[in-house]
Design a protein that fits this description.
The protein is of the alpha/beta class. It contains eight helices and seven strands; from the N terminus they run E-H-H-E-H-E-H-E-H-E-E-E-H-H-H. The protein has one domain: Aconitase, domain 4. It is globular.
Length: 201
């Protein structure tokens, strides 16, 4: 998993509440078990018409936001079904951070497991970031995970809370497999001992 330390990038404003996981990645794209290739279908029903043509006024189809690395969204982001394909699609598009007043619990936890930092901030602070994001490529938001701060393009700084364990995992690039591999010495020792004490197994 990619490490997350500091990110400065273009933020796409998505002022919608209750963005559910079916909006993020519709059900017809859930057949794959790969984490790659889903970015092209992120927000598919909002990005494309029935003929597969881009809908020009959707935020990620605008030239200023095609390279967005941050989404600033409305309340209750990631609600709905618990599909892990949602953070897969977000990450594959290139988004590393989502900022909103609140998140659905399962989506929130899945983000950390996939190298995405979800940041919950008070609505008034999200409003400031949303307005800043509306300036497109002329405004870049900075997220500092070590300091736990988000800075607007003009230097206004907001602090956020994050679980210390989840913070460590993101900063060190550790998913569940990576965490397990940290214990490889103990695992190998257990297996050797088990083989000696129970050779019939």
């Amino acid at each position: 998993m990619d490490k997350f330390t500091t990110l400065t990038g273009i933020a796409a404003p998505l002022p919608l509440i209750n963005v559910d996981t079916d909006m993020i990645i519709p059900k017809q794209f859930l057949k794959t078990i790969k984490r790659s290739g889903l970015g092209v279908n992120l927000f598919d029903e909002m990005r494309y018409d029935d003929d597969g043509n881009e809908i020009a006024d959707f935020i990620l189809n605008k030239d200023a936001y095609r390279d967005s690395e941050i989404i600033v969204a409305g309340d209750n982001f990631g609600c709905g079904s618990s599909r892990e394909h949602a953070p897969w699609a977000i990450k594959d598009f290139g988004i590393r951070c989502v900022i909103a007043p609140s998140f659905a619990d399962i989506f929130y936890n899945n983000c950390f497991k996939n190298g995405i930092l979800p940041i919950a901030l008070p609505q008034e602070q999200v409003d400031v970031l949303m307005k800043d994001a509306e300036n497109g490529a002329n405004a870049r938001i900075t997220v500092d995970l070590e300091a736990q701060t988000v800075s607007t393009s003009d230097g206004e700084v907001f602090s956020f809370e994050v679980d210390p364990f989840k913070k460590r995992c993101l900063m060190e690039g550790l998913d569940d497999i990576g965490l397990t591999m940290e214990k490889i010495g103990a695992i190998d020792g257990f297996e050797q001992q088990a083989a000696q004490s129970r050779p019939w197994v």
